[in-house]
Design goal:
1 helix, two-stranded antiparallel sheet, alpha+beta, transmembrane helix, transmembrane, rod-shaped, about 160 residues, 4 strands, membrane
Length: about 160
């Protein structure tokens, strides 16, 4: 324990003057000048008062957007998981479908090139002995709403 070199005496009618005078800067920590109920002033140890506790934090309500996000997160995650499972089951069918589509594209390309060539070959083989036919048509009409007359010439 720490011993102090101060002698603290009280002012009483029997001892009108203190035995030791102290300056306020010399008073040790925890000692204060107090006035007793009888009017006598003395030095006394006073208990240190603890600082008041900080107020308890008030619980804030959870914002609506946070609740909505928290509720949507498992739903979106479950949807993505279900889509992944569905794609894994559909993968063989999707591969077969893509191969069938490529086959259809090849058939359409072959038809677009082959049909006109076959028609051209067929015309040239059928008309090998004949010459080409020319048709000339002359049409005449009198007036804006007049009857039109025409002649067709085959050569």
């Amino acid at each position: 324990m720490h011993e102090t070199a101060y002698e603290i005496t009280t002012l009483t009618p029997q001892h009108p003057t203190p035995t030791l005078r102290m300056l306020p800067t010399e008073i040790p920590p925890g000692v204060q000048m107090v006035t007793l109920p009888g009017g006598i002033r003395t030095l006394a140890y006073t208990p240190q008062q603890a600082p008041p506790a900080p107020p308890a934090p008030v619980a804030q309500p959870i914002p609506t957007w946070a609740k909505t996000t928290a509720l949507l997160t498992p739903t979106i995650g479950g949807g993505i998981a279900a889509a992944g499972v569905g794609l894994s089951y559909a993968a063989p069918g999707l591969i077969a479908m893509s191969e069938a589509l490529w086959a259809a594209v090849a058939l359409i390309a072959a038809a677009a090139i082959g049909v006109p060539m076959l028609l051209r070959i067929g015309r040239s083989a059928a008309g090998a002995g004949k010459g080409s036919t020319h048709i000339t048509q002359n049409i005449t009409a009198s007036g804006m709403f007049g009857k039109a007359n025409g002649t067709v010439n085959h050569r």
